[in-house]
Structures are given as structure tokens and as C-alpha cells.
Amino acid sequence: MSAQVLTYVFVGLTFALYIAIAIWSRSASTQEFYVAGGHVHPVANGAATAADWMSAASYLSMAGIIAFEGADGARYLMGWTGGYVLLALCLAPYLRKFAKFTVPDFVGDRYYSQTARVVAILGVVFISFTYIAGQMRGVGIVFSRFLEVDIDLGVLIGMGIVFFYAVLGGMKGITYTQVAQYCVLIFAYLVPAIYISLMLTDVPLPMLGFGSTMNDGSGTFLLDKVDGLSQELGLSIFTEGSKSTIDMFFITAALMAGTAGLPHVIVRFFTVPKVRDARISAGYALIFIALLYTTAPAVAAFARLNIVDALDNRAYQDLPAWFSKWEDSGLLAWVDKNDDGLLQYRGGAALDPVKPRYSDTRGDLGERILKNQPTDNQNEVYIDRDIIVLAHPEIAQLPNWVVALVAAGGLAAALSTAAGLLLVISSAISHDLLRNTLARHLTDKQELRWARVSAAVAIIIAGLFGIYPPGFVAEVVAFAFGLAAASFFPIILLGIFSTRMNREAAIAGMLSGLIFTASYIIFFKFIAPEFNTAEYWWLGVSPEGIGTLGMILNFLVSFIVMQMTPPPPQEVQDMVRNIRIPR
């Protein structure tokens, strides 16, 4: 059976499963819609948290970035994993004890201010839409290649599926759907990795295989082989980073603090019955997450090796079928710069990143022509980073059912996080903005109706972000983490551990951090992308890492304003002390 037919079967079965779960777990109250009634088992909640947290960036893009950048890509591994540990151990139990399941709810009550609540609502919506852009792009990429439809149509199909189970089931439906999605995505990620590890090193565990010797009898370590090929072709050395130390530090710190401040992860700790269960589910989630994160570097190393072997110095007409199919999706392209009919995969950008990536016209051999190719290097091949995990099983010539499985896993990763983010946006509008701010007279039934309407509108806007993405999946997600680090992390941390932190400081800190970080990102990514180089970055910090500077600014402004304004009321100070003292 062909890979495309199997993909239809696998994707259809998983979608049917998600929809069946949504129907079975339909929410009948706001408590079920927002936090699944608070009755989810810790193990199930751990799996749901892992699926919610491991987005399309983790599944599709992270290994791709490591494959291209080598050691520099470790910033995502360190930042996201470290951030989850920070959230699970230092913040989540206290937030759970506070019993406010949304960030704006926590901010509004802890800082005794409706203004602070509204600022937090705006921040949540802005950050969540930035994050969801990457998820919808991931959905479109999978559909465009494996179901052979246009990326835009793929996004629309994904919107329809998420709309059904997110709007109908709320957090209750999303939670149990995410448990199923975690099982799908982790199985889909590990199976091809194990296959390829055995093919290259005879070691079944990929996290050990990529540090082992090749099974070709040469006695060469796999990473040495990758580095040797990289040096020979002028690519970046895989095991040595090229980013500056300060930029690596700031990006990693932004990802860590951003993880700890992301609203869609925080809400997961309210779906279990007790604070103790929140801690237990955090531990299970860390184990579930580690399965993918310890495998990603191996997938990247295997992919780097197999791509060079499959593409470099090959005649276009002799390439396997997967190359032309990915060309059709617009995510792979080649231009014959030296007119020899062979692909030259070398170091350097194959195209100008500021201008359109490819032309719809074809060359003499049928290849998709690159537009605006730089002439200062010999690289003739453009490979979108987001296709590495999806294309790798085909590149390694794995069975068709593995190819189809990976496609289903990519959709599971993207849809699980998209659903969680949509629920956060929905609760921010219906619960925080309407019920607790503008329309306090709303009944439970009316609030539930507004929650579903808000989710529906959010899905439409998210789809537009997927059709017009601002960058690679992981890159877009990194911006969301930077915004969360600059806005929410300081006020959550100080709100828990400082009795002196007051509303004036919280509002000033949030606004300063969010405005500074968003302005920096928007300038370099959208207003003047031609200046998006280390030469023009402030202090050498890229837009991905600027969230750390925004976080520092937030802390500084908060401390200064805190000293210049009155302390919080005594009852608020007593409440903060009570949160930190175990019963």
C-alpha cells in the first residue's frame, strides 16, 4: 500500500479517535470546560501536559534546527526542558494552591486590580496567538506533503478538527484527546528513530546510537562522520556552535522563563484533584517529555548524515520521488548554478531569506527554480527546516507505514498544543474579560456559550496566522516564549514569593517588558528584516533571546515602582504567605 493511502488511513483513524473522545467527554459546565472538572488522574494529566507542551516546534522543527545548526540548536533542548522543571517544581504547586486557573485571574486577584487583569488578558491573547501561528503552520506542512493538498487548505482542515473537539469538549475533551495525541506522537517519533539507529549503528536506542560507532566496519563514530562531511562540504560543524555565548545564554534563559510563564501549561495543573496530584503529574509529564527530547539530537544527527548522502552530487533526474513531492509543497527547491545537472549541497544560504523563497516556474529538468539566489556561495539546495522530521523516513527509505505514522504524529503534536492555546484564549475572553471584568452578571450557562464563541473566533484568527506564517515553526514559538518571559514570569514569581510586590509595580513591569520585547521582535522580523544580523542587534542579542532582556527590564521596573508606591493591603500579604506555607 502506498505511503499516501496509508497516511489517509492513519490520519483518518486518529481524527476519528479525537472526535469520538470529544463527543464522549463533552463539557456541560464552565468547570469542565476550563479545567476538566478537576478530576483528571495524575498519569493521564502528565501525558496530556506533555502533549500540550510538546508542540509542532518540538516534533517538527527542533530536530530540523539541530540538524542545520548542530550544537547551537541545543538552546531549545536546554531552554524548554529547564523551563518545564522550573515551572513544575517552583511555581505550579503554589499557583495550584492559589486556586486561580488562568494567569489573568491570578494577576487580577493577587494584585487587587482590574487594570492589571486587563493587561494580563491582552498579554495572554497576544502571546497565545503568536504561539499558535507555529502550530497551524505545522498542520499545513503535514497536509500539504502527505495528503498532497495546498498548505492553506491543510490549515483549514486542521482548523475544522480543532474547532470540533476544542469548542465541543473544552478542557475535558482536550485533556483526554491530548492523552491519545501523546501516544500517537511519541510512538511516531520513536519508531523511525529506532529504525534508523539500527540501520546506522546497530544500537536500538537512538539516544545512545548517535554517540556510537558506525556499523560500516570503519570504526568511525557517527558524530565524527557527520562533522567530517560537514567540514568537507563547507557546512557548519555539527558538534561546535557558531552563535555567540551571550546570544545562546539569552535565548536559553528566555525559553526557560517563557516556559514557566506560558498560560496554557499552567492551567494543566488545575485539572487534577489536589496539589499533591499536581506535583505527581508534573513528574510524569517530565518523563514523557524526556522520551522525545533525548531522542531529538539523535534524529538531527541521523538526518544530517542521510540528507548529505541522498542529495549531494546527485543528478536531478536520478533523485528519489520524495524530492519532487516536497518540491511541490514549496518547502524544497534547487537551482543549477553551475549548469552541470548535479545538486551541490554546500554551506551558505541557497536563497535570500528576506525575499520570496521559490518561483512557480520550472527549469529544463523540471526542477522548481529558486528566486533571488545569493551568488557568493555554491549551495544550490534549499531545505525548509520544518520538513526534516517528516521527510527523514522517506530519505532513509523506511517502510511506507512508518512514513504515514510520522505524518499522523506531526498532526497530533500541532493539534494538541493548538487546542490548549485556543482554550487559554477562550477562557481569557469569556472568564477573565467578560465574567470577571465587563459583564459580571453572566450566568454559568451564558459564560459557557461565550467561551465557545471565543474559541471559534480564535480558531479563525489562528488559521490566518497559519496561512501567513512569520517564520519557521520553532522560531515563531521562540518569540512566544520570549514574550511570556518578559511579561508573565516576573509578576508570577514576585507574586508568589514577595509580599511587597504591589499592583502598580505589576502593571508597570508587565507593560514595559511586553512592549520592549514585542517592539524589538517586530522591528527586526517585520519592519527591517534586512538588519536582522548580529551586527545590528542590541548587545548582540537576537530577537529570539530578547525576551531575557525584557524580563530583566520587567524586574527592574517592578522593583523601582515597588519602592515608590505603597505596599499591598494586609489581607493580600497574608494570602501570599498562606500560599507558600504548606498545611
Describe what this molecule looks like in 3D:
The chain is 69% helix and 2% strand. The protein is an all-alpha fold and 583 residues long. The protein has 2 domains: 3-303 and 398-472 and 576-580, Hydantoin permease, CATH 1.10.4160; 312-395, no CATH class. It has a two-stranded antiparallel ribbon. A two-stranded antiparallel ribbon has the order 2-3. The N and C termini lie far apart (60 Å).
Regarding CATH, which class of the largest domain?
Mainly Alpha
Topology, number of strands: 4
Kindly state the mean pLDDT as a whole number? 80
Lateral strand order in the biggest sheet: 1-4
Specify the biggest β-sheet: 2 strands, antiparallel
Please compute the radius of gyration using only Cα atoms: 24 Å
What proportion of the residues is helical, as a percent range? 55-70%
Intertermini distance: 60 Å
How much strand content do the residues show? under 5%
- The SSE order reads HHHHHHHHHHHHHHHEEEEHHHHHHH
The secondary structure category is mainly alpha
Low-confidence stretches: none
The tally of domains stands at: 2
CATH topology of the largest domain: Hydantoin permease
